[in-house]
Amino acid sequence: MTSAETDLLARVPAQLFIGGEWVDAARGATFAVHDPSTGEVVREIADASPEDGIRALDAAVAAQDAWAATAPRERGEILRRAFELVQEHKEDLALLMTLEMGKPLAESRGEVAYGGEFLRWFSEEAVRISGRYGTNPEGTGRIVVSQRPVGPSFFITPWNFPLAMATRKIAPALAAGCTVVVKPAELTPLTTLFFVRLLAEAGVPAGVVNVVTTTSSGEVSAPIIADPRLRKLSFTGSTPVGQKLIAQAAEGVLRVSMELGGNAPFVVFEDADLDKAVEGAMLAKFRNIGQACTAANRFIVHESVAAEFARRVTERVEAMRVGRGTEDGVQIGPLIDDRAVAKATELVADAVERGARVLVGGNAVEGRGSFYEPTVVEGVVPGSAILREEIFGPVLAISTFSDEDEAVRLANDTEYGLVSYVFTESLSRGHRMIDRLETGMMGLNVGVVSNAAAPFGGVKQSGVGREGGLEGIHEYLSVKYTLIPA
Ligand code: NAD
């Protein structure tokens, strides 16, 4: 580790943040966070137990009324200051993310820019919470509709986007007037801890944001979710864990937002501009080392252009540099852990056994860290596990289709429905795809769709609710209607 890295890590708070104070876990436990490119321990931090989780909820509950009563303009200005502090500390945040998660530094900088935008966007939305006023059809009364903050909210975030998944939830909640408890992923908690210190510096009052880091996610989360004072649960992570959490939330009829798994189709029609399709494919597949819910999982390419598409992406993949995310020019960092490497290995082996061919890559990288080569496989046949499961690794799997109906059938043949990518130069075909694909989001001739101003979220087993856009703040508001006789 360099001295700059050691110095940065020493500045990351190592405790829980509860009621505006940095505190040790009640039982004094700690756990280690690792650099996936070396396996080295980078920091030892507090390991919360269930009583810490409830203490954090106590603090959020205690701060709720005052925060809801804080002027929307002031809430917005605090978020705006937080946005500016994130810009000031963008290099620290980016390096921290690379150290705990592994992605190349250039991508970490991209995430800081993206994650920061939620603070700016919702700083501007805080003052636009409005209702309506009207006369009922009978003319006997006035209908007043207002929007109130939902109340104390609990957030569980994943490891793949350590900053953006936190800001995408915290910013709209704070803008709406809700207080929060955040439980970041145990593999990447440092970015959240560093960010929350910036929130406090921006003027977020004590108790409005609380953080519990823990290796006992289930044990710490369950009592918080079961607590009748909690009003909202927002989760980003895998579908199986999301299903468990929805079941727990059902007990208290808790409002939930669920950003779950994806299995994005990337459809290339015969009339696509192949330059755009290849450019889009590289982004949609290899960004975040393939570890994104929005990562293209199934490349469904028209049979007349499949060979050319495969040749061009293979050429690009052969030139990719694999290494520690802090090294110049590295495009593929490590996967999050050895289990992720084993999963990519198994999926490729299964596809090959059923007849697919590896054009480049296809192996785990020997030595330190959890690396897997960027890979292209073609001729993937129906029934292969790689078409059903999230790969979550740098493997581009190509299968073919012969007409539009088949493309739609293949694209929709999944229980997920988060994002779809479509490449065609035909405007009418593009519009048909918007209607026909079962998806919460679509990239038409583009490989990345995420934007703070747009509603992010899925259909089917990819989840419920939307984050970002005009829609995002409504996840934290409840509608109240009052009738006043005329
Ligand atoms: P995960 O479901 O294993 O973990 C997500 C979070 O849930 C972590 O904080 C983890 O500690 C916690 N958790 C795990 N078990 C729990 C339990 N029983 N009770 C409470 N909390 C629990 O997912 P992951 O591996 O961290 O993230 C990858 C997954 O997240 C992928 O499926 C990916 O598609 C999905 N994801 C979705 C989006 C989206 O917006 N739709 C964005 C990013 C990631």
Automatic annotation (TrEMBL):
Gene3D superfamilies: Aldehyde Dehydrogenase, Chain A, domain 1 (3.40.605.10), Aldehyde Dehydrogenase, Chain A, domain 2 (3.40.309.10). This is Succinate-semialdehyde dehydrogenase/glutarate-semialdehyde dehydrogenase. The keyword Transmembrane helix does not apply. Residues 22-481 form the Aldehyde dehydrogenase domain. It is an enzyme of class 1 (oxidoreductase). Keywords: Oxidoreductase. Its EC number is 1.2.1.16, 1.2.1.20, 1.2.1.79. Pfam families: Aldedh. One of its GO terms (biological process) is gamma-aminobutyric acid catabolic process. Transmembrane segments: none annotated. It comes from Microbacterium marinum. The keyword Iron-sulfur does not apply. The active site is at E259. Belongs to the aldehyde dehydrogenase family.
